[in-house]
Amino acid sequence: MSTVNNGAAPDNRKTIYGILIAALVLTWGYIFYDKSQTKETIQGLETKISNVDSARMAIQQEFMNVSAKADSLTKDNLELQGDLAERNADIQKLKGNISSILKKRNATEKELAEATEEELPEVKEVKKSVPANYPVNGVSLIAKASSELGMDGNQVASALGLSNVAEVINSYKLEYWDTLKGGNNASNTKAKGKK
Question: How much is the pLDDT for 87?
Answer without folding.
Answer: 83
